[in-house]
Amino acid sequence: MLTNQIRALARQATRTDSRSINVRSFTVTAGSRTRSVSSKTRSIRHLATKSSTASAKSASSASADSIVTTPPTGSAITLKSATRDESQFGTRPIYLDVQATTPTDPRVLDKMLTFLTGMYGNPHSSTHAYGWETDKEVEKAREYVAAVIKADPKEIIFTSGATETNNMAIKGVPRFYKKTKKHIITTQTEHKCVLDSARHMQDEGFDVTYLPVDEHGLISLDDLKAAIRKDTILVSVMAVNNEIGVVQPLKEIGKICRENKIFFHTDAAQAYGKIDIDVNDMNIDLLSISSHKIYGPMGIGACYVRRRPRVRLDPIITGGGQERGLRSGTLSPPLVAGFGEAARLMKEEMDYDKAHITRLSNKLKEGLLSIPATQLNGSNNPESQYPGCVNISFAYIEGESLLMALKDIALSSGSACTSASLEPSYVLHALGADDALAHSSIRFGIGRFTTEEEVDYVIKAINERVEFLRKMSPLWEMVQEGIDLDSIEWSGH
Ligand SMILES: Cc1ncc(COP(=O)(O)O)c(C=O)c1O
Predict the structure, then answer these.
(1) So what's the architecture of 350-487 in CATH?
(2) CA of 286 to the centre of ligand 1 (A)
(3) Residue 301, ligand 1, Cβ within 6 A
(4) In ligand 1, which atom is closest to the CA atom of 161?
(5) Coil, strand or helix: which one is 244?
């Protein structure tokens, strides 16, 4: 009944003026009660009404718009609460796994709803208003996505996410130039989808060099220069590592690539909107973006593809020739618009987010590194470290046991793609960590909606549970007794 009424209202609204559809203004009468169409919007409005600043003036007249567009400082708590599920799952763990995915910003959801109800035209329909209006919105989103990395909107190709984009760049560019070039350079600590694409290219006859990293996770520029060959076509080095948060020297890498006429691709899934990136200043030719790492919807991302000097690539998905012929398929306007809004917000609130995340990160690090026998994985240099990713090893404890003891906090020991396997992290191995250290590491992800109270809770919980688990560890007991574990000859059975 309710759904039918919503549909009828949506139809009516579409007929009168589809451009001005705003789902927030829809209300339907169910029984004797008037209900809002969007539950998220309703919860924002509800919270907004409770917000002290708004209520001081006029609690009853506070609109969702006035709340969601206020500066982030004032609305952080309201937005934070709106990202929480209030009814279905009961009390849920504190979320500190933002590298796996970020909660959708309610402002993004608001934007998307417009396209799920009224504005349903195919953006590639060029013969009528339904197509024109969504196409206009798609192009607006493209501008927002481009602006974050100072690119031209024409250089943004929408894809299904960073996995597809990485495949597109690492397979597409070498395939296009395969007659003359046969060599690709990447690193040992890339995301699985980059490593797997590179292995795929080896199967097709390309040579791949996997650069090592130092103990902080950084590549050496001398190693890069030494690896370059006459037939090197592509260098792919990730911007921010998803497990340890280390930031590679993009500008220096870009300079080396340009001097050697080699295309430079960077997987910026964890970096886009979080660190400063200027594709022109950094000589980046291709760049991967994922919407669900920036508080946008899942299932959409983009590839930045430089137009001058032009980068050519063999498309992986062919068909209708959309997206400059580089990625065929009908675009999804709700996803594109949500992604665009997420990108717009990242740019607009970057300074605020940076300050908020850095402050909480410093507090968390201080609170956890004061625990004996702990170690920070990544770089100590703030220039080379993204603060929202804190990876710490707790010696003499299995990371998996610690995760089991921390059911009230959603955490991970590394990449979500490999979290089902009990293999120690290949990223930490590449840093020189042994199995024991790699097994005892936990990644803490801090984002826009993380609060100070949550960080305080996490510090206390980890302190208590590390102490509890170590009390059960014979190794920890031996260390307390002053025994040097390296001097022990363990029996083989
Ligand atoms: C560094 C990095 N690259 C690529 C991906 C894949 O992104 P998507 O989920 O958009 O395919 C991720 C996601 O975890 C990532 O962290």
Answers:
(1) Alpha-Beta Complex (3.90)
(2) 15
(3) yes
(4) 10
(5) coil
- Cβ pair 320, 293 in contact under 8 A: no
Please name the amino acid found at residue 192: K
What residue's CA is closest to ligand 1, atom 15?
269
Per-residue pLDDT tens digits for 2-49: 334 333 333 343 333 332 223 333 232 233 333 233 333 333 333 332
Distance CA 148, CA 278 (A): 8
Name residue 158's amino acid: F
Residue 446 burial (CB count, 10 A): 25
Strand pairing of 156-159 and 301-305? antiparallel
Burial of residue 33 (CB within 10 Å: 0-12, 13-18, 19+) is exposed
Ligand 1 atom nearest the C-alpha of 100 is 14
| Cβ of residue 137 lying under 6 Å from some atom of ligand 1 | no
Q: Residue 91 corresponds to which amino acid?
A: T
Q: How far apart are CA 149 and CA 136, in angstroms?
A: 21
What ranges do the domains of the chain cover? Answer: 1-37, 40-89, 129-348, 350-487
Largest alpha-carbon pair distance within the chain?
82
- In ligand 1, the atom with minimum distance to the C-alpha of 193 is 4
| Strand locations in 57-189 (E) | 94-95, 156-159, 183-187
Please work out whether the CB of residue 161 comes within 6 Å of at least one atom of ligand 1.
yes
Give me the amino acid identity at 407.
K
Give distance in angstroms: CA of 228 to centre of ligand 1: 27
Domain 129-348: CATH architecture, name and number where available: 3-Layer(aba) Sandwich (3.40)
Quote the CA–CA distance of 46 and 412 in Å, as a whole number: 33
Confirm whether 417 is a catalytic residue: yes
Q: How far is the CA of 95 from the centre of ligand 1 (A)?
A: 18
E strand map for 70-151: 94-95
Using a 6 Å cutoff on CB, does residue 162 contact ligand 1? yes
**What is the 3 state secondary structure string of 398-440?**
CHHHHHHCCCCEECECCCHHHCCCCCCCHHHHHCCCCHHHHHC
According to the model, what pLDDT value does residue 20 have? 29
The secondary structure element, H or E, covering residue 264 is strand 263-267
Backbone angles phi, psi at 471, to 5 degrees: -60, -25
Q: How far is the CA of 391 from the centre of ligand 1 (A)?
A: 18
Contacts of 460 by beta carbon, 8 Å cutoff, 6+ apart: none
Q: Is 265 in the pocket of ligand 1 (CB under 6 A)?
A: no
**What pLDDT digit, counting tens, does each position of 290-347 carry?**
999 999 999 999 999 999 999 999 999 999 999 999 999 999 999 999 999 999 999 9
Mean pLDDT (the chain, rounded): 84
Q: Contact at 8 Å (CB) between 376 and 365?
A: yes
